[in-house]
Amino acid sequence: MMMSDITITIDGREVKGRKGQTVLEVCKENGIYVPTLCHWPGLSNVGACRLCVVEVEGSNKLGTSCTMPATDGLKIRTESEALFARRKMTLELLFSERNHYCPICPESGSCELQDLGYRFGIDAIRYPYLFPSLPLDVSHPHIAMEHSRCVLCTRCVRVCSERVGVGTLDFRERGIAQMISPDAGLPLGESSCVSCGACVQVCPTGTLFNKNTAYLERAATAGGAHSAMQKVSSTCAGCSVGCRTEVCVSNNRVVRIDADMAAGDAGILCEKGRFSLLQDRRRRLTRPLIRRSGRLEETDWETALAHIASRVSEVVAQHGASAVAGIASPALPNETLYLFQKLLRAGVGTPNVDAFDGRDLRVTRAATEGLVGAHVRAKVEARLSELDEADLYVVVGADPTRTHPVVAAAIRRGVYQRRAQLILINPRKTGLTELADLTLQPRRGSDGVLLNGMMQAIVSDGVAEKTLVPTAGRGAFVSTLERYTPFAVEMETGVPRDDVLQAARMYARAKRPVILYGRGITRQSDPRLIASMQSLTLLTGHADATHFPILGLRRSASSTGAFDLGVDPSRLPGRQRFTDEAMQRFESAWGRPVPTPAEFNANEFDAKAIRALYLLAGDDDLPLGEEFAERLMETEFVVVHASHASSLTEMADVVLPTLTWAEQSGTFTNIDGEVLPLRQAVPGPAGVWSAPEVLGALGSALGLEAGCKTPEAITEEIAALVPEYAAALAEGEGLVRFGGEAFDVRRADLRAPDYFREV
Amino acid sequence: MSVKPKIATVWLGGCSGCHMSLLDLDERLIDIAKAVTITASPVTDIKEPPEVDVVLVEGAVCNTDNLHVLRKVRERAKILVAFGDCACFGNIPTMRNFFPLEDVLQRGYVDTESTASGEVPRSEELPELLDKVQPLHAFVKVDANLPGCPPSADAIYFALTELLAGRLPAASGELLHYD
Predict the structure, then answer these.
(1) Residue-range domains of chain A with CATH
(2) CA closest to A99 among chain B residues
(3) B99: nearest CA in chain A?
């Protein structure tokens, strides 16, 4: 017997189970229905609702199947007249205890208590109603809390502490007076709530609901037409984590976004993914605009695209193709990103194509190539799943509570549930500060000195002697580090030497540490900072054969996809270098010469050299920094391709409208290198072309051969040119692995970049 | 030819939505009218319900008159059906139970935004409000419940045909609804 090591008898039928499972789990696996109200997959079981009770042979008491361990030989009954009567009684007591008014409840039609009422044929409540006067808390910007409808299942309390790791929701009072209570009595809007809305998703009744979309769902389910609400399994476009979502649509409008529980991740989302996307208050663009005598005027697609083609051709004729550049938001689907670089490279002939955050990924690549060799195309970083196994988090130059809230939740889970330690390296206070065991606040720009100081502490203190890996470069490495004495490091960084030593010891002694870094690091455009982190993991023996337990928190849904598929001036699609062989392959596929790589950078392009710029923003709110705005102002001809009006579109010579995340299909590649499906949930506004259609039309106008006319054709072309993507695209999802020659990061040469020399 | 069963309907503390839904039976009303005699009803405007086989009671019990009518129809009907959410569960009319009775009257007759100088009507002619609004079964025996706010025409048709077939209706599936 391998996995099925126990046998239990359910309703006279012998079924297999595994040790450690609950009776409820065994029932579910065998397709045996047991009513539940407080059980939720992935949360602890508490037996609060008592609907899952079963009869146990040899016992005169009913047992809650959600908390009952399935033991070999156990005999239970899940259905009998007595059980039906008991469960029905429990339900009626729940209905009588508080104030359940289905006709006015926004969750009517998607309420588990109501569904159970129907299932048990409840058409009157035998017990006297208590009519308690209970408050309604609408202090939170998204979440309403109507205590009248609460059945005290405690799912919200459990998800808040066990999955989100904040523990905002708890109880007060006891027995019948018990109440769900944020921060021991604060209104939810003033509490420590992180607004992820997990409680709204797990609430079985209408107690916790999205107050901004309340009743929109009901419009679809009124009169019992439950099927009128469509649910689309998709992927969140909010950040690079790629949470799987279930997008609920009613009357062609997205009315609710839930974590897709079938996807098997933590089952949580964040404020942006669950709530903010539903409340897009930006002004939608539906017609192309052309600037005529200083003003943007509506025009038709043909005119707008012909204008772009002719202006771009003029610039190319006068100043050469490299006077044209394209910058794309990495929050767009892979397919659009691929077509974008193809248009720029093959259609226009310019190498200047970059993602808005392209620099972030190039910084990491440069560091990795420096350490393990330029032939490696594989991702050597940590994966998200490692966060749930780590015993130490070192968060450098990032505030995941703001940029990647689901990552922050994983860190909080680790800290609270596994007693993982947390070190923050950040000049600023972050949302994790209160949770940290140690906070180091190096002066701006001194992160590298601090990292070297940690390594010097490890080498000189001998804290890591046991794990210290002898590598080829160790001699030079140690001698470089000698200058990073506790005194020098403290002087340079402002971090007390004892803190540096403590951080070094914590890191060296941890068993499964993960370093996370964000744009606070990559913004400095210094690959040496990443190299120092990588050296730190090598030095302490934390690096595996093929990966560093370091995770770069990328900006957008397809930051990795853009990087993989050639939205990068220094690489062709497939992270391929510009070898003769590769260039020939792309030239024959695209039917046009492929320009050689360039030193282009989306964040720092030379506005004098770039005369025409195509900015593909999609529905992304690109942060228009002052410098970037100045560069745009200086650029002769600017096309902005965006779904909504913004200060960006105000600066454009031509504005092209486009679809939003909910209106298109495609794939994203998340931070793990996982290809994830984006599925259209609602139709776009009439007359708005999709980005692939626009890019195709512009390509034709610029002499590219027609092709990529259908989504299938685009996928086929990507699969042919980037074979690593072929399987994932064919399946619609899947992990992408880039190869290169075999390598072992543990054989990498230790290098300590000398930050002092630069000063 | 056998005598057609007699049906009455009454309207207590409710919005009459259930009666509206009854009219939504549309052409099926003709079949029903052929099969039964409809006696007292808000539709026929016969005030006093006679002895009947079935009475459908809409609304919750809010005041002494509701209670009086309910008791009378209970005596005179062989089968009493709680007709709609208010009759079955209490529903919206019970929302005043969260406030003291005097506050409710004050709010309704005096503090209303559109009232210039209002006064709580007090007369022996008027029925008194009960302290708590409650569903029918808190006062009399109910033979069958037909929830819904309102019950759909299909649910009503189902209930009536069940009754005509000599069975007590128990709605289930799509016919059982609380909204």
Answers:
(1) 6-79 (3.10.20.740), 128-279 (3.30.70.20), 289-357+558-735 (3.40.50.740), 361-552 (3.40.228.10)
(2) B95
(3) A133
